[in-house]
C-alpha cells in the first residue's frame, strides 16, 4: 500500500477476495486512506466514481468473478463521464492452476474481457522497481485518457499477515420512522422535483438517477450542481456516498424505486458508513416509467423500513408536498436521511435530455499533476 500512496491513491473500495487479503487488511488498518467494503462490485464502481468526483484517486478491489457486476458502471459511467479508477482484479481460475470449478471460465476470459471493455491492464509485478513503474504507467494512462486501468493479481502475488480482529463496525440501532400518508392524489414527479429544487440549499451537490428522474430534473432546472446519472442504473446512491465521504458539503441523491431495487445493498453500505451530510430521496411511482410503465415490486416492499434497519439516522415515508416541504426545511439534510415519497406514475410528454460533456485530452490532468478545470469544479461541488 505504501507504493500506492506514493502515487496518490487515497480511496479504496471493493468486494474482498482471498488473494487480496494482505492489501485489504492493511488498507482497513490504515489511518491514511478511506476504505469502503461494498455489497457488489457495481456498487464499488459507483462509490469510486463519487470519490473521484470529490477529488480522490480511487482504487476498486475485486475478484475477477465480479467483473460482470462492474461491466455496466464501466461502460455507462466511467466511459461516459471519463471517470478514472485503478482496478485491482484477482485472477481466480488461472489456467494451469487448481481452483474451484466456478472460476474456470472466468479465469480463461479475464484478459479478453478487460480488452473488450477497452481497459488496458498488466499483471502484477513482484519486483519493487517494476511495480513502481507499472503504477506510474497506470497513473499516466488515467490522467491522459480519463479512463480506468487494471492490474491483475495472481495467487500469492501479495504477501503479508495483517489481520482484522472482530467486527469493524458497531451494530446500528434501527431508526424510528416518520410516516405521514394522506391518501390525497399523489404528486407528479415533476412537481416533486420542482419543490425539491427550490427547497434544498444552493450549494448542495445533487445526484439524480437515470431515466425520467434525471430528464425531468434537467427540464425543471438544469443547474451546475446537478449530476445526471444517464447510465449505470442503481449507482446513484453509491456515487452520492463516495461524494459525501470526500466533499465538505451536503449531498442529495434523488433515486427511483426501480433503480433502488437494482442495487438495494447500497442502502446497507450507506447505513454502515453513516455520511453526515447525506440525504436520499426515493421517488416511488411503482413502475419503470422510462420503459413503458411496467410494474416494479415496490408495492410489496417497505423502503422506509429497510432504510431504518440499514442504519439511516432519519427515515420518513409520506405522499404529500406539505411533508416534503416540512422535512427539507428542517434538519433532514443532516443524515444520513432517507425520504420515501410515493408519487404518481407518468411523465410529461416533452422532456429535455441531459447532455454529457466529455472531457477532451487538453482538459485532463497534466503530467505535472495539475487538476483539469472540470475536475476542480467537481471538487468544489459544482457539476
Description:
The chain is α/β, with parallel strands linked by helices and 383 residues long. The chain is elongated and about 65 Å long. It folds into two domains: 2-153, Thiamin diphosphate (ThDP)-binding fold, Pyr/PP domains (Rossmann fold), CATH 3.40.50.970; 177-342, Thiamin diphosphate (ThDP)-binding fold, Pyr/PP domains (Rossmann fold), CATH 3.40.50.970. Helix content is 37%, strand content 17%. Residues 358-382 have low confidence and may be disordered. The longest helix has 18 residues, at 128-145.
CATH homologous superfamily designation of the largest domain: Thiamin diphosphate (ThDP)-binding fold, Pyr/PP domains
Mean pLDDT: 88
Strand order of the largest sheet: 7-14-15-11-10-8-9
Number of domains: 2
CATH domain class of the largest domain: Alpha Beta
CATH architecture of the largest domain: 3-Layer(aba) Sandwich
Form type: elongated
Distance between the termini: 31 Å
What percent of residues adopt helix (DSSP H or I)?
25-40%
Content-based structural category: alpha/beta
Order of helices and strands: HEHEHEHEHEHEEHEHEHEHHEEEHEHEH
How many strands appear in the DSSP assignment?
15
| Beta-strand content estimate | 15-25%
Organism: Rhizobium etli
GO biological process, one term: organic phosphonate biosynthetic process
GO molecular function: phosphonopyruvate decarboxylase activity; thiamine pyrophosphate binding
Pfam families: TPP_enzyme_C, TPP_enzyme_N
Amino acid at each position: 500500500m505504501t507504493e500506492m500512496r506514493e502515487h496518490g491513491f487515497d480511496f479504496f473500495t471493493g468486494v474482498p477476495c482471498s488473494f487480496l487479503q494482505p492489501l485489504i487488511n492493511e488498507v482497513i488498518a490504515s489511518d491514511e486512506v478511506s476504505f469502503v467494503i461494498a455489497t457488489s462490485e457495481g456498487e464499488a464502481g459507483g462509490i469510486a466514481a463519487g470519490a473521484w468526483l470529490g477529488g480522490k484517486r480511487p482504487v476498486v478491489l475485486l475478484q475477477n468473478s465480479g467483473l460482470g457486476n462492474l461491466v455496466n458502471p464501466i461502460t455507462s459511467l466511467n466511459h461516459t463521464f471519463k471517470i478514472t479508477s485503478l482496478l485491482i482484479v484477482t485472477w481466480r481460475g488461472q489456467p494451469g492452476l487448481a481452483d474451484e470449478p466456478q472460476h474456470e471460465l472466468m479465469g480463461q476470459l479475464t484478459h479478453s474481457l478487460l480488452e473488450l471493455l477497452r481497459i488496458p491492464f498488466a499483471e502484477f509485478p513482484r519486483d519493487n522497481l517494476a511495480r513502481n513503474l507499472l503504477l506510474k504507467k497506470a497513473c499516466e494512462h488515467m490522467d491522459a485518457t480519463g479512463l480506468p486501468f487494471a492490474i491483475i493479481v495472481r495467487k500469492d502475488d501479495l504477501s503479508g499477515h495483517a489481520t482484522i480482529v472482530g467486527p469493524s463496525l458497531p451494530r446500528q440501532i434501527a431508526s424510528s420512522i416518520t410516516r405521514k400518508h394522506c391518501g390525497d392524489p399523489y404528486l407528479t414527479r415533476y412537481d416533486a422535483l420542482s419543490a425539491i429544487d427550490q427547497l434544498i440549499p444552493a450549494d448542495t451537490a445533487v445526484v439524480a438517477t437515470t431515466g425520467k428522474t434525471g430528464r425531468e430534473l434537467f427540464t425543471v432546472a438544469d443547474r451546475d450542481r446537478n449530476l445526471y446519472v444517464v447510465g449505470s442504473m442503481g449507482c446513484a446512491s453509491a456515487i452520492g456516498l463516495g461524494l459525501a465521504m470526500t466533499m465538505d458539503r451536503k449531498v442529495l441523491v434523488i433515486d427511483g424505486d426501480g433503480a433502488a431495487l437494482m442495487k438495494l445493498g447500497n442502502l446497507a453500505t450507506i447505513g454502515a458508513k453513516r455520511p453526515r451530510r447525506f440525504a436520499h430521496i426515493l421517488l416511488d411511482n411503482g413502475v419503470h416509467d422510462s420503459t413503458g410503465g411496467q410494474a416494479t415490486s415496490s408495492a410489496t416492499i417497505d423502503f422506509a423500513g429497510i432504510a431504518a434497519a440499514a442504519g439511516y439516522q432519519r427515515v420518513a415515508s409520506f405522499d404529500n408536498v406539505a411533508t416534503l416541504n416540512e422535512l427539507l426545511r428542517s434538519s433532514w439534510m443532516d443524515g444520513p436521511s432517507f425520504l420515501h415519497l410515493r408519487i404518481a406514475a407518468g411523465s410529461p410528454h416533452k422532456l429535455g435530455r441531459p447532455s454529457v460533456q466529455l472531457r477532451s485530452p487538453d482538459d485532463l490532468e497534466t503530467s505535472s499533476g495539475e487538476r483539469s478545470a472540470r475536475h476542480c469544479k467537481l471538487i468544489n461541488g459544482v457539476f
